[in-house]
Amino acid sequence: MHLLIDDVQLWDGTGSPAQSKMSVEARDGRIHWVGAASQWQGNRATVRVVDGRARTLIPGLMDCHVHYSSPGGPEWIARFTDPLPEISMRAIELAEASLRSGVTTARDVGAPQGVSIRLARAARAGEIRAPNIRAAGTWIAHQGTYVSFARQFAEADELRNAIRAEIEAGADLIKVALAGWNEGARPKDAPDIPFDKKLLAMAVEEAHKAGFKIACHANDPTSCRIAAHAGVDSLEHGMFLEASDLVAMEKNKTYLVPTMSVWDAMLYYSRVVDWPEARRKRAEDLRQGSRAAVTAAIKAGVKIALGTDAGGGAARHGRIAREAELMVECGMESRDALIAATSNAAKLIGEDERGTLEEEKIADMVLLDASPLENIGALRMIAAVFQEGRRVA
Ligand SMILES: [Zn+2]
Description:
Layout: E1 2-10, E2 19-27, E3 30-36, E4 48-51, E5 56-59, E6 61-66, H1 76-79, H2 84-100, E7 103-108, H3 115-124, E8 132-135, E9 140-142, E10 151-153, H4 156-169, E11 174-178, H5 197-209, E12 214-218, H6 221-229, E13 234-237, H7 243-252, E14 255-257, H8 261-272, H9 277-300, H10 320-329, H11 334-341, H12 343-349, E15 365-368, E16 382-387, E17 390-391
Parallel strand pairs: 1-4, 1-5, 6-7, 7-8, 9-10, 9-11, 11-12, 12-13, 13-14
Antiparallel strand pairs: 1-2, 2-3, 5-15, 15-16, 16-17
Helix pairs in contact: 4-5, 6-7, 8-9, 10-11, 11-12
The chain binds zinc ion.
């Protein structure tokens, strides 16, 4: 496969400003050459040439928080308990929708019965049209909290075993969920959050010892506090992070993955679906908390990676542009929102060969009909998506 994207504005994701009148040549899945369009020396007759004029080329987008096993929507949690054949087939379809929106790499941070691990393998084998997927397998949560279809533990030993079992099953990373007790499940004298500091420290140690990253769901004040100080690789959601938590995250090099698309979608559904007022109010509170946390995280210099929580929250798949827009609304520069969706995401996921458009890197690229540096919403104006140098959308 031999491809030339000719005479394009290039934003390469390294932090350098965009450059106009550039060309990018891809050969055998990798970026072979990057330079001024006028300097390209090859033979046009032997290359597939893509017109880049008045277009912007950026690295393939990365969504650090998706769940391809659910379609999102107003009843997203119920969708995780649909019949397994339906979940499996749907996951293939949703992964393709994600790819079409420019997502060439995704972290699937939790699926029932490890569906995401199978999906990631099928994608890696080239059997389905999907992003390059890094799968967490199944969520790990304390018994009596979070969702019933997570892998649950009660004792420390069971937590270690759960992590080992995920690794054994083929997970690429570990996902733990800190949450309060479900209604009626709280034993007498139990703490608010049973998955406490000590247990989380053990989980971090166990994952890191095995060379795996660990992502931590935290969406209430106590969980945010515990997760921010634990040295996890990423804190997911984080709507109630306070100044001292952000200092700890910056020090621990913990990424924040804000998933603001969720509250945005929930507020939409609260208007168009018959949701009780209390549910609408909760969505509004979460949205406010999330915005405040993201704005403070930007100021505190916490590393941010983009994640939509498509499927796992109310957000649907294929809407990554909306998350970038919400980041910009919270005070992020467009270029920083793009970095959150490319090179920062690559660092969090551990994709050393992706995330920037430089010679020798894997040629995952998105060609846009407008510049997202001027208006981040231009991420919707997709002209083409390339995965390993091959056009896939
Ligand atoms: Zn999620």
